[in-house]
Amino acid sequence: MDTATQGKWDRTARIFDFMTGRGPERRWGPAKRRLFAHMQGRILFLALGTGLDIACFPPGQTITAIDISPEMLAKAAPRVAAYDGDIEARVMDVHELDMDDASFDQVYTSCTFCSVPDPVGGLRQLYRVLKPGGDLYMFEHTGSRFFPFNLMLHLMTPMTRLIGPDLDRPTVANVRAAGFEVRAVEYVYLDVVKTIHAVRPAP
Amino acid sequence: MPDRLYFLLGDLLANAAVGAAAGVAAALAVPAGWNMFAAMVLAMVLGMALASTLAFPLMRWFGAMEVMLPTMLGGMLAGMVVGMQAAMAPLAGLTAACEGAAIGLAALAFCSYVDRLLRTPHEALD
Fold this sequence. Notes:
Shape of chain B: elongated
Radius of gyration of chain B: 15 Å
Distance between the termini of chain A: 32 Å
Structural class of chain B: mainly alpha
Radius of gyration of chain A: 16 Å
Structural class of chain A: alpha/beta
Largest sheet of chain B: none
Number of helices of chain A: 6
Largest interface: A-B, 38 and 32 residues
Number of strands of chain B: 0
Strand order of the largest sheet of chain A: 3-2-1-4-5-7-6
Number of strands of chain A: 7
Number of domains of chain B: 1
Helix content of chain B: over 70%
Helix content of chain A: 25-40%
Oligomer: heterodimer
């Protein structure tokens, strides 16, 4: 377990809902609902955080949700309990998933790979637990191809990394590097906030 | 209030306020007679630093990247332009604020325009 990352998110759990629960969630809610509407079969979701994303889940799903931070999951507990379906919330590091190979039909991530210390390593773990032909759906913010946005994101990252995410990750390239086949990328805001649909190729 | 109107007003308010603050800060920081290039660079850095600080509380209300990127761009540009003017001649606070606010709104318009251009499914290139 990466205790440094765990400690960072445990500390951030105290202010997470205050900072993101209103503006960002209200702004990104419609795009998240469209993405999560694809949920079906056996689902792995990460990172659950304080459970704000649960409001965007379609009802009736069976979801294994992980997060590296026990403090985040403690705050998520009432939202997990209120969900009209089954969510099993577990403390787990994406680099060390204890699930069997090819055990999920779909994997969902929400603002996760901006913070995973070894993003390609983490994505390879998702590849491993996903069934061949299974879907990876991601809602992520990433770096930008365009000046001056890329400059600003690079400049801000050393500060934002102290309390939370990197802002300049090449997440789509990381998804490809992990072996996935990228099917679609849709921009939610500029080319920075986006949804990604990728699949683990079937043999 | 409908989300669309709420965020439109929030974006306008955030970008005008941050641009105005960056403009005033640049006018206060740059004395008349400075080297114009040095004044532009200093005021641009000042505007960006101020914008990134002011953006944090605004992000809680109006969105994360949707607030951070246009306000930082507006802060940089407002600082740079107002700083350059302040190096040439003393600038009144109200003038600096109005120019900064206008530049902040122009930065918002630019970001919104680019966002519209990009809002279609794309082959991933990043």
